[in-house]
Design brief:
Elements lengths: L1 E7 L4 H15 L3 E6 L11 E9 L2 E2 L1 H9 L1 H5 L3 E6 L14 H4 L4 H8 L4 E5 L2 E2 L6 H6 L3 H6 L3 E2 L3 H14 L4
Parallel strand pairs: 1-2, 1-3, 3-5, 5-6
Antiparallel strand pairs: 3-4, 7-8
Helix pairs in contact: 1-8
Amino acid sequence: MTTLVGYSSKYGATQGIAERIAARLRDTGHDATALPLASVGDPANYDSFVIGSSVYAGSWRRDARDFVRRHRDMLAGAPVWLFSSGPLGTSKTDAQGRDQLTEAEPRQFATYRESLRPRALQVFFGAFDPAKLSRSDRLIMRIPALKDLMPTGDFRDWAAIDAWADDIGRELPKG
């Protein structure tokens, strides 16, 4: 079974998660490839899918949404897992005491639960390095309120990512 770990990543944090998932699957004997969704040729070449995107303003990136829209019927008939990355910081809860990962779930997950029936959906903490920002994003970051919402650092929980990949690996048939 060949697994596509497809991703949409603006600054590399989600790419790192996807590459880690693919490597973990390969380490357990699965054929897995991590690719940017925009570069995937024919997804029919894959038997299963792990699809992830960073989240901005509550949504997956456009190329991830477009990939799912174009291939919805095929994805609905295959084993699919979905993930996103985005929340920053070390606190598991926000100022109101709500779980950060639950609150950061992209709005598309509600639709994808029904249309794709994924085996699992997961949100992971992300990373933020202001040195990687585009010029326009650097200008936006001058807004004082955003500085508090965008702490600098790598907050990805590699143990949680590995555990999720291991769960996927146990569900996938080998070969």
